[in-house]
Amino acid sequence: MTVIITDTGFGPDTWTLGYEGDTALDLPSDTDPVQLSERLAAQVQMIRIAFPSFADGRGFTIARHLRLSGYKGHLRATGHLIADQYAMARRSGFDDVEISDELAARQPENQWLARANWQQNDYQARMRGGSPAAA
Amino acid sequence: MYKYNDFDTAFLAERNAQFRAQVERRIDGSLTEDEFKPLRLMNGLYLQLHAYMLRVAIPYGSLNSAQMNTLALLAEKWDKGYGHFTTRQNIQYNWPKLSDVPDMLDALAEVGMHAIQTSGNTIRNVTADHFAGAAADEIEDPRPIAELIRQWSTDHPEFQFMGRKFKIAVGGAAKDRAVLKAHDLAVRVVQNDAGETGYQILIGGGLGRTPMIGKVINDFVPRADLLPYIEAVVSVWNQIGRRDNKYKARIKITVHEHGIDHIRARVDARFALIRPTFLGADQELFSEIKVHFSPPKFRTGSTTPYDTAYKTDPVFRAWADTNLADHRVSDHAIVTISIKKHGATPGDASAEQMRVMATLAADYGYDELRISHEQNVILPHVHKSDLPAIHAKLKQHGLGTANIGLISDIIACPGMDYCALATARSIPVAEQIATRFDDLKLEHDIGHLQIKISGCINACGHHHVGHIGILGLDRAGVENYQITLGGDATWSAAVGERAGPGFAYDEIVPAVERIVDAYLSVRDTAEETFLETYRRVGMSPFKAALYPEAIKKVA
Amino acid sequence: MARAFTPKVITANHLIEGDVIYLTAADTWSRDLAEAELITDEAHAQLRLLDAQSQPATVVGAYLADATSGANGPEPTHFREEFRRTGPSNYAHGKQEVLANV
Ligand code: HEM
Ligand code: SF4
Fold this sequence. Notes:
The complex is a heterotrimer.
Chain A: E1 2-6, E2 9-11, E3 24-27, E4 46-51, H1 58-68, E5 74-79, H2 86-92, E6 96-100, H3 101-106, H4 109-113, H5 123-128
Parallel strand pairs in A: 3-4, 4-5, 5-6
Antiparallel strand pairs in A: 1-2, 1-6
Chain B: H1 6-28, H2 33-41, E1 45-47, E2 52-57, E3 62-63, H3 65-78, E4 82-85, E5 90-93, H4 101-109, E6 127-128, H5 143-153, E7 168-171, E8 185-191, E9 197-203, E10 215-222, H6 226-240, H7 251-258, H8 260-274, H9 281-292, H10 304-312, H11 314-323, E11 324-326, E12 332-337, E13 348-350, H12 351-364, E14 369-371, E15 377-383, H13 387-396, E16 411-412, H14 427-440, H15 443-446, E17 451-454, E18 468-475, E19 478-485, E20 497-498, E21 503-504, H16 508-522, H17 530-537, H18 540-546, H19 548-554
Helix pairs in contact in B: 1-2, 1-4, 3-12, 5-9, 6-8, 7-8, 10-11, 14-16, 16-17, 16-18
Chain C: E1 8-14, E2 20-23, E3 29-30, H1 42-53, E4 59-70, E5 73-76, H2 79-86, H3 95-100
Antiparallel strand pairs in C: 1-2, 1-4, 2-3, 4-5
Iron/sulfur cluster binds near residues 455 and 459 of chain B.
């Protein structure tokens, strides 16, 4: 099982439609977002991007690119992310993060909540003017 | 000099609190070593052969006396009384304990300094021309733009877990003193035909296993487009750069494999998406930053004390001839303080020496200091009349060596004496070469000659771009040194050519001596530098000097 | 042909201090190479390495380093390990400093 993490902490998965149909996309980290635009049909409501390792930061760029290209649906980071990356995920345009129960046991809720303040101390927001980079 | 505002201060306090918690979480098991390692690296903390090593950023090489004094404090309180200035305008402490590092970072924060992004697969500390703001040949001070890039790259959410490191350098003068062409991305302040100031962008330079010279990706990026343009480059590379092999992960390989035109097209497309997210706040910030770097009110006065000392004191004259550079104000000079005393570790300064330099900056230098990529310290603005007093003080503290640009002004990486990745030592080789040529009393006659030494293929000592490059290798469990000739770290950048088989540890100094002897005998005039001679005559006279047996065999 | 197994010691850096340590036969960590367990059997070496790696709260980066038997215990065979057990050659810091103060 997995845990979904948002700014309010750990919670259950509320996405019930799975990733098989045409309302959701499940993307590996080597996806080229440039070639994704045609798959971004209007009915896509959920895109989940894999982090096979916390060291593979390509997902942040993919998320950002999707947002910049106008994707307004849900964006989820899934896999091996560490609590320290929560702010990066949110600032790059993800709505939430999905991790395994096992990782959630090792890095409990309070370690993730410590980064719920991701909108503060953000050089990027300050550089651009207005709201955070991905908004 | 840039002064932190409330935002910077709050950011740094939060960041340091995060790191303190990360250390605790590593100790309590919440973070594995694999997870902790990139986090400590992005805060400048390595684990080396004998101990941890903390690398503190000196952004674009600029600091004031209070900051230098804090560097001295760190050396004394948490280290062994010295620090090592590096080719990337950082300072390294070789002996901190993990549990002390959060306190060291807090002490740095008090003077607006940090160790953020001095390591790890992120955008690294931005470097710049060490004569910035002082050089006579400058178009524009590159530091405001470097500071803007520092802020933009700090904690950039997209770029903290990239395939590899990403190094940016900025230059704003006719001469390149920042090794621009050996960087992942270089920004060069230029003017277009309409007289507007903008930036030429080069990408894909880098040393290491596959040395490459940077290529121009854009000849003129207007001011307001700079950050989105750099962001587009890094974003494209983060996405398509290779992750299967860390030796092929740098952007130089991406550029090589895809071609600069393909990369340019992708960058342009990404730029079109990113540009609208910059609503102009960066340009307002830039205007504020620029004010911090306004030149000091240069004092005027007679230069007689300087002229007299120059005429009457040969030691002062020798120092003035090598260690001073032209300042844009004619009665001022740029002083390079040599951290290359013959026989000492290149780039190492004791806490006491740091304090002496800080005091000199406060008393005579408008409170400004710089660190050069050549591992020396600079007083960028000094009225000439103060030079004799400064020189006298420097001499008392082992800082008066007159050797800037000469054969003993060697760049050397830490090598096997400290570095976990090393294949051979570099420091003792540098020490012995400097001592040898000092004994021969030849170095002023030899003139401008740069030796650069790395202790492994990673090339932290820039050996590829040394006039004489030395690379230390491990050949079947024994140190062995390979020589390259003809490298060039300036705008006419070139990667040196391998001279032939390597030399054992006790053969390398005599080998360098043979190269120098060959140069002295084939140069046209005393004015023809080593590099000019090499370019004229090529490798063969040097090869003959290095490998006399080979010649005999053929004969 | 598989290469013959050469004797090894297990070494690492201490998590907090960062300095070089060696695994002893008594399952403790020593700062002195001479006190390390010299392992001559390959299977035993792998087991001992797993032991060492299962102590992340004490050590970082445990690995097997070649060593040979000397008059006072294990000695390094490669210059890298010689530096690790001594300290840098430009200053008398590291282990050589500690030894000088004994
Ligand atoms: C002592 C610990 C150090 C370690 C572990 C280390 C590690 C590395 C590695 C792995 C690379 C190659 C990166 C690549 O090719 O992708 C590299 C390159 C480099 N490092 Fe270091 N380094 C150390 C110290 C230094 C020092 C002291 C300096 C400055 C004197 C320095 C400056 C550089 C430079 C200039 C490069 C080459 C530029 C380039 O890669 O394009 N490093 N370093
Ligand atoms: S060149 Fe090699 S030996 Fe020298 S500091 Fe870099 S990684 Fe270490």
